[in-house]
Amino acid sequence: MESSNGEKIRGKIIRLLGLKIIDLYIIRKFLGTFFLAIALILSIAVVFDISEKIDDFIENGATLDKIVFDYYLNFIPYFAVLFSSLFTFISVIYFTSRMAYNTEIIAILNSGMSFRRLLRPYLISSVIIAAFSFFLSDQVIPHANMVKLEFEEDYIHQRPRRFRQKNFHRQIEPGVYVYLENYSTISKTGYNFSIEKFDGSKLVSKLIADQIRWDTATDKWSLRRYYQRDIDGLEERIITGRKKDTSINIRPEDFSVRTTIVETMSLKELDDFIDQQIMQGESNVKAYQVERHKRIAFPFSTFILTFIGVAVSSRKVRGGIGLQIALGVIISFTYILFMQFSSQFAIGGLLPVMLAAWIPNILFVFVALFLFKLAPK
């Protein structure tokens, strides 16, 4: 009964999309080749990663279930999305070039189907892959990366990270600014600390301390040799002391936030995080904004590279399938190279963030249109 209902739903979808047998044939070829290629490259990646990290696993006492379930099961979705555009392109070129060399493309076009109409099953397949990649990157990978990063901290990067923050400036809440000359994550101690509170443009309070240290027992900051100045109109009050415990809206981990933290956030969480970082005056906020725009721009590369792949591989060329696959790999890596360069230009302030994330797609749209004109009609 369930099988019958499934067939009916499938039939309705096929009729709604106006699909023919040849469309279903191409979709099966496309998706089958893509998932097989991804499975093969992930298997190779896992083998190489195991060979590289096996000593760390043994030395740090990682159990088999943690290695498999906490690390590698969460390792796979990230790399599946990372390689998705590349293997979409290679998959299209591989099976389409085989269809061309078996004269299937010629037969399809001679039957009266236009080249534009031939692109429909490719478009449907690329929509499925792009939607699947976006779902993984937004809903699955953030949690998976959180578990994977925790595993790496426990069993791969077990030694404490020696990190010293210098000249730390941050707005921790509206009108409240913190400054530290330097801070050590090992001792959780900062030096030459100051916190200023403003009411509009007027300074209402300033606290200066020679040293500030995080007290893990009370979850508060302990100030040493402090000087506090409170201003109320024309009146001023000065308080000094040797030690004082205080609650400030900042924690030790805020001094060592890594850019990889964004890998553990969904798109909505990333938007909130960026707003918070802008409010706090974080200097590295462009790196987070680039990541945010890349998550939206990256799935569109699936469509662009699919159309380029069809245009490149739909005719016979001297050199055979191998030449077309080599050309596909070159174009794919050129796209990835453009993406990396434009991201660095945005982080360096040479390009607007949104333009940097989308410029590879814009350039390759023109490449796709050019190759489309050269494709067999």
Task: Give a written overview of the molecule.
The structure is a single chain. The protein has two domains: about 240 residues, no CATH class; about 90 residues, no CATH class. By secondary structure, it is α+β, with helices and mostly antiparallel strands. The longest helix has about 40 residues. Helices cover about 60% and strands about 20% of the residues. The radius of gyration is 28 Å and the shape is elongated. The chain is built from ten helices and six strands, in the order ααααααββββββαααα.
H/I helix tally: 10
Mean pLDDT: 81
Give the overall form.
elongated
What separation lies between the terminal Cα atoms?
45 Å
Q: Provide the β-strand percentage band.
A: 15-25%
The order of strands across the largest sheet is 1-2-3-4-5-6
Summarize the structure.
The chain has 377 residues and is an alpha+beta fold.
List its salient traits:
377 residues; alpha+beta; 6-stranded antiparallel β-sheet; 10 helices
Topology:
Layout lengths: L1 H16 L3 H39 L4 H19 L1 H18 L2 H7 L4 H41 L8 E10 L2 E9 L4 E11 L2 E14 L4 E13 L2 E12 L20 H14 L4 H29 L6 H28 L5 H22 L3
Antiparallel strand pairs: 1-2, 2-3, 3-4, 4-5, 5-6
Helix pairs in contact: 2-3, 2-4, 2-6, 3-6, 4-8, 4-9, 6-8, 7-8, 8-9, 8-10, 9-10
